[in-house]
Amino acid sequence: MTKESSWRIIIQRQAKRQLRRLPVDVMKRISAALDEIAKDPHAGEHLQGFEYRKWRVGSWRIIYQIEEDQLIVLVIDLGARGGIYRRLNR
C-alpha cells in the first residue's frame, strides 16, 4: 500500500485465509486493487442488502466496509464471484 493514501486497510481473518490460497498472479492483482481502494474506497460498488462494498478484480471480488470516522477500510472477505456471495449470506 502506498503512503499517499490516508485510508488504512485492515484485512480480517477470513480474507487473509483466502488471500494465502490464491495463485501469485491473482494475489498481485488483488494487492494492486487494495492500493486503489485505499486511494478512494467509495469508488467500489455498494453491495445490495449489506453495508458492504465490492471491488471487482476480474472474476474475483473484494468485499469491504468503510469506517468513515477512523478512515479505515475493513476487508471482510475476498474470493471468486460465485462463492463469495454465498458465504456472505451465512
User: How many independent structural domains?
Assistant: 1
Order of adjacent strands in the largest pleated sheet: 1-5-4-3-2
> Per the principal axes of the C-alpha atoms, what is the gross shape?
globular
Oligomer: single chain
- Strand count, sense and closure of the main sheet? 5 strands, mixed
Describe the structure in your own words:
- The structure is a single chain.
- This protein is α+β, with helices and mostly antiparallel strands.
- It has one domain (8-88): 2-Layer Sandwich (YaeB-like fold).
- The protein has helices spanning 13-21, 24-39, 81-88; strands at residues 8-11, 45-46, 53-57, 60-67, 72-80.
- Strand 3 and strand 4 form a beta hairpin.
- The longest helix has 16 residues, at 24-39.
- The termini are far apart.
- The model has no long low-confidence stretch (mean pLDDT 90).
Quick overview:
With 90 residues, the chain is an alpha+beta fold. The chain is built from 3 helices and 5 strands. The radius of gyration is 12 Å and the shape is globular.
What are its keywords?
90 residues, globular, 37% helix, five-stranded mixed beta sheet, 31% strand, 5 strands, alpha+beta, YaeB-like fold
How does the SSE layout of this entry go?
Blueprint (H helix, E strand, L loop, with lengths): L7 E4 L1 H9 L2 H16 L5 E2 L6 E5 L2 E8 L4 E9 H8 L2
Parallel strand pairs: 1-5
Antiparallel strand pairs: 2-3, 3-4, 4-5
